[in-house]
Amino acid sequence: MTAMLHRLLLAAVCLIAASPAHGITPKQVEPRDQPPFHHKPVVRLSPDLADAGIAHAIERHLAVTAAAGQDHNIFIRRIHDARIGDEGYIIDITPDQILVAANKPAGALYGIILLAELIERDGGDAWKVPSQRITDWPSLEWRGMHVLFGSRNSIGSIETLITDVLPKLRLNQLILETNYNFAYQRRPEVADPDHITLADAKRLLNLARENHIKLIPMLNCLGHQSWEDKTFQLLRAYPQFDETPDRGWGEKGFYCKSWCPSHPDLNPILFDLFDELIDAFEADTFHVGMDEVFIIGQCERCRDQSPAELFAKAVKDYHGHLIGKRGVRMMMWGDRLLDQKTVGYSRWEADDLGMAAAIDAIPRDIVICDWHYESQAFPSVPDLMEKGFTVWPTGWRQVPSATKFVEAALEHHGPQVPGYLATTWFPIDAVTKALVQAEPIGDKDIDPIVETIRATSPLVWQGKP
User: How far apart are the C-alpha atoms of 57 and 26, rounded to whole Å?
Assistant: First the structure.
């Protein structure tokens, strides 16, 4: 009984040690009844994993540098183990050495981060790490975050997200809602004054690749062409595209402007913007937004067509360029494709103006980002799956709802439901600041978002306990 109790206590200690700052518990933890590793680390990085990203990860997360020569006691190596996939890893800790092994550099990165979270530092150069063997891999393949990228002044925050925050949260995709915040060369008249440059985009892309994060540029299409009393740059440069030029902020029932999907001069301009963002970020996926459209079918060109016909036309136009011409995956928000009367969601997250019927007229190879922020049940996921779409469940800032949504993603997980997406919807500088800090920043809008991201990210990686 004493030996069994000892083993149980040992297992508990190792499990607690392996559930570090972000609350992520590895799938397999095998404790060893041995003293801990307690040495000054000397790291050897296997040449077949020695890309710039892993070298930088060692420096950033372990605060050491991989060394040449002999007398190594920390080994980072490539293996071939089908159980752990491309992002999984094995950490084997004995009193004398530590091995971090992975099939691909992405797995090595996550193994290095987990090891960093296990290290106890005693004030000197030595590490102290409990002896154990850890095997871990993600439960969901797509683990994403969506952010608003509205100013060049926010580049530092995006860099911090990419190099520090997202890897520690085990998130591997970042949707950058760039909109008009880019130095468009073909259409400079639509660029916001404080735009990012092509060089900025390439720097972010290189950092993302080093940290095994996929960047997905986004330009919000059709609706959301204004906010409060500010009309965004496309309609300011081309007011003839405004679906309702006589309506604006302050009018009862007005939310935000839409452009006219039937205007013959719109798409050539729009597709130039798509192309420049795709090329700048060397993207294989592009997000077209299209959420919360409340103005449609009101101008002379559109009023003889149904909302569903107009919405489907816009979707098919964008699909024809993105998938048909550019060969990139297309993503969009899914709320206007859901019939409010059928699914029971609010009019924000489902359509009550007749657009939902467009779902039967659009291609099935579009990824639908199905967002719901307060619900406890998600009938839209199986409904969209049944229609043949790939679905990316998307939550925001309520822990109970978002947790239920992650559980729904895990329940339906497969080729059609590959992951979960977290949204932020507030200025990225404040969100990043709060994610970096251990304690809430005292902001009633930001703190719930960060709390929700921290609560759901472990589930997205490890699955439901």
Answer: 20
Q: Is 59 in contact with 43 (CB distance < 8 Å)?
A: no
What is the CB neighbour count within 10 angstroms for residue 75?
16
Nearest to 390 by CA among 281, 313, 285: 285
Express each pLDDT in 431-445 by its tens digit.
999 999 988 999 999
Give the CA diameter of the chain: 84
Question: Domains in the chain, ordered, with CATH?
Answer: 2-136 (3.30.379.10), 142-462 (3.20.20.80)
pLDDT in tens, 93-137: 999 999 999 999 999 999 999 999 999 987 788 999 999 999 999
d(CA 120, CA 135): 20
* C-alpha distances out from residue 359 to 122, 298, 316, 338, Å: 59, 21, 11, 8
Rg (alpha carbons) of the chain, rounded to whole number: 24
Rounded Cα gap, residues 144 and 385, in angstroms: 20
Q: For the range 335-339, what are the long-range contacts, defined as Cβ-Cβ under 8 Å and sequence gap of 24 or more? A: 335/291, 335/292, 335/371, 336/290, 336/291, 336/292, 336/293, 336/311, 337/362, 337/368, 337/384, 338/380, 338/383
* Predicted model pTM: 0.94
Cα gap 325→372, rounded to integer Å: 32
Which amino acid, 144? Answer: G
At 304 the three-state DSSP class reads: coil
Please say whether the beta carbons of 328 and 286 come within 8 A.
yes
Non-local (6+) Cβ contacts of 336 within 8 A are: 290, 291, 292, 293, 311, 351, 355, 356, 358
Q: What is the rounded distance in angstroms from the CA atom of residue 69 to the CA atom of residue 248?
A: 69
